[in-house]
Amino acid sequence: EGVLVQEYLALKCKVVRWSAPAQELVSASTSIPGNAEMFMIPATLRPETMYGQTNLFVSQTITYGVFKVSKSVFYVATSRAARNMAFQGIFPEWGTAPKVMEIKGSDLIGTLIRAPLSAKETVYIIPMDTTKETKGTGLVTSVPSDSPDDYAMTQELSKKAPFYGIDPDWICQDILPIIDTPEYGNTIAPALVKTLKINSPKDERQLAEAKELAYKTGFYQGTMVFGPFAGMPVQEAKNQVRQQLLDSGDAFVYCE
Ligand code: A2H
Predict the structure, then answer these.
(1) Among 6, 147, 234, residue to substitute to test ligand 1 (most atoms within 8 Å of Cβ)
(2) In the chain, pLDDT over 70 holds for what percent of residues?
(3) Is the predicted pLDDT of residue 78 greater than 90, yes or no?
(4) Which of 8, 32, 44, 186 could, after both became Cys, cross-link 177 (CB 3.0–4.6 A)?
């Protein structure tokens, strides 16, 4: 039996404006200069969908680390992911993840970030507590057009913003068509959520089925309908978009 390595694309989402609690913590840190560039680092398997990013998910119960990449550049991710990154040449000293601060997911909610390639340019951090500490970087880009999980969570948060203690204006409602498929049209996630009668993020079994279907259908039958690769099959566009994000310095490869 072989060892399976999952290769993610880690996106660099620059912080544009911190939430009030995060601002207070970052300002109080003597290790972070005032002019520092700080990046949230979500990990994705679907770079070709990043045109449709509308939010960034964190888990309120995960404690994230802030890691020093250079004098004025810092990454936010789980300590687990940063340890892996330390062996992949991301930090100056091989094998060391220099943590300068910790911050709870709940304190990050409401932070405004730049979303590379997104039609939205800047998007807000919102909660998704099913985000696992043990996978990727613990941060997830929300693409409600193509991910049933992201769509179901976005709907839930819009319906119950006060319950979740968030400003409804933080939730982006514009679902842009990114990929067209013969069977499910150009926004596969809402289509599947409707077809499989998914009512909330708690409908785990149906969501798992929707996720599988969306992933396979998008990859094998999808055609791009947004961005510079519009008209191209997803199977080809995927690598092109990935390469573009790497070349522009907006992303790096992360394996675990
Ligand atoms: B994907 P795999 Cl449009 N916890 O990105 C929960 N989910 C996580 C995660 C974590 N810690 N880290 C990453 N993920 C999500 C885009 C996307 C994704 C679309 C459609 C499907 C899809 C936008 N969200 O994933 O278990 C991330 O969401 C379905 C497979 O390692 C990442 O890619 O296979 C994917 O799960 C990685 O899942």
Answers:
(1) 147
(2) 99
(3) yes
(4) 186
What is the atom index within ligand 1 of the atom nearest the CA of 146?
3
Question: What pLDDT digit, counting tens, does each position of 204-216 carry?
Answer: 999 999 999 999 9
Distance 211 CA to ligand 1 centre (A): 9
Mutation test residue for ligand 1: of 45, 123, 151, the one with most atoms within 8 Å of CB: 45
- Centre of ligand 1 to C-alpha 41, Å, is 13
What pLDDT does residue 3 have?
A: 79
Q: What's the CATH class of domain 7-248? A: alpha beta
DSSP letters, the chain, are -PPP--EEEEE-EEEEE--HHHHHHHHH-TTS-TT-EEEE--EES-GGGGGG--EEEE-TTPEEEEEEEETTEEEEE-HHHHHHHHTTT-SSSTT---EEEEEEHHHHTT-EEE-TT-TTSEEEEEE-TT--TTSTTSEEEE-TTT-HHHHHHHHHHHHTHHHHT--GGGS-------EEBTTTBT-HHHHHHHHTT--STT-HHHHHHHHHHHHHHHHHH-EE-SSTTTTSBHHHHHHHHHHHHHHTTSEEEEE-
